[in-house]
Amino acid sequence: MPSRHLLRRWQYTVYGSTPKEARAKASAVRERLRANLPARDRKVTLGAFAADWIDSTLAASDRKASTKAMYATMARQHISGSKIGAQQLDKFRPSHIEAWKVELEQRGLSESTIAGCSS
Fold first, then answer.
1. Can you give the C-alpha Rg of the chain in angstroms?
2. How is the chain split into domains, by residue range?
3. Are 105 and 88 within 8 A, CB to CB?
4. How confident is the model at residue 10 (pLDDT cuts 50, 70, 90)?
5. For 18-56, b where at least 16 C-beta lie within 10 A, e where not — what string?
6. Which one-letter DSSP state was computed for residue 20?
7. DSSP state, 80?
8. CB–CB of 25/14 below 8 Å?
């Protein structure tokens, strides 16, 4: 019979301010694993999230085809095609949005287009 440590493929460490908080976080990891989910969220970029959103949520929405096409085009051109598209969601900050708006202005986009992209 293999030893116990060979059966355990991964070990996840959690931290908390108190033992109770650490136990709660460990319990949450166990629940995720039981549900066949990863122990922690993977590091996804905004561009990858936008592409997935276009293919899933947007495609399944009841919006008009022309609206879906416009949203998909805006996301591909102005998010996936920008520096902001490479930003990991777990490290996303409001300052990234402001820098993205400046980038869009420098690309010569109108104020109304920028407002449409960021609202």
1. 20
2. 4-34, 46-118
3. no
4. low
5. eeeeeeeeeeebeeeeeeeeeeeeeeebbbbbbbebbee
6. H
7. I
8. yes
Token pair belonging to 7:
């059966």
Q: Each residue of 35-75: pLDDT tens digit? A: 877 777 677 899 998 999 999 999 999 999 999 999 999 99
One-letter amino acid of 115: A
Show the tokens assigned to 71: 């949203």
19-37 confidence digits (pLDDT tens) = 999 999 999 988 888 887 7
User: CB-based burial of residue 84 (10 Å sphere; 0-12 exposed, 13-18 middle, 19+ buried)?
Assistant: buried
**DSSP H helical segments within 1-119, as ranges?**
4-7, 19-34, 46-53, 59-60, 65-75, 94-106, 111-118
